[in-house]
Amino acid sequence: MSKRRRNRHSKPLVDRPEVRFTYEEIDPKVMCPYCLFESPLSHFKIILANGKESKRKKCPDCGTIMFQETLTREMSVKEFANWVFEYMPYGFWQKIDFQKFSKRLQEKGIAREFWDEYKRLKGTIAREPSYSEYMNQQGREYARKWNRGEGRE
Ligand SMILES: [Zn+2]
């Protein structure tokens, strides 16, 4: 029995008998957001040349290097779709292997929810008219003016 004085407000976890560490808590399973590869966090570590562990993590499957926060952030399928959507302008789809990504979404049974949310987000962007739409609109405007007798020499 330890006679060490305890500070009530910062009780060390190891002194609490009710807390039992499980393998999951020490080395939680995480998922690479770039290829959906799932593995314990320890499999993503990068050991630097000086023997120390890098603050960044590397996916053993797709090789993407990322911050630990990216890997350990808890996200729902919808939140993940939002994350991908926000990343999209910075080249998310160019960066990843789309075949693998979409196959794994299917395998995890989350493809429908993911794509529904992704498409919903995409629908919220005000779309810029394309050049041909612009030309058509100009043409219609010109025809209208012509019909009203404007624009005739
Ligand atoms: Zn990966």
Mean pLDDT: 81
Largest sheet: 3 strands, antiparallel
Our Rg estimate from Cα atoms comes to 27 Å
Helix content: 40-55%
Bound molecules: zinc ion
How many angstroms does the end-to-end distance come to? 104 Å
Topology as a string of helices (H) and strands (E)? HEEEEEHHHHHH
The fraction of residues in strands falls at 5-15%
Shape: elongated
* Content-based structural category: alpha+beta
Strand order of the largest sheet: 3-4-5
- The tally of beta strands, per DSSP, is 5
* Count of alpha/pi helices: 7
Spans of at least 5 consecutive residues whose pLDDT stays below 50 are 1-19
How are the elements arranged and paired?
Elements: H1 23-26, E1 29-31, E2 38-40, E3 45-47, E4 53-58, E5 65-67, H2 68-72, H3 77-87, H4 92-95, H5 98-107, H6 111-123, H7 131-147
Antiparallel strand pairs: 1-2, 3-4, 4-5
Helix pairs in contact: 3-6
Bound molecules: zinc ion.
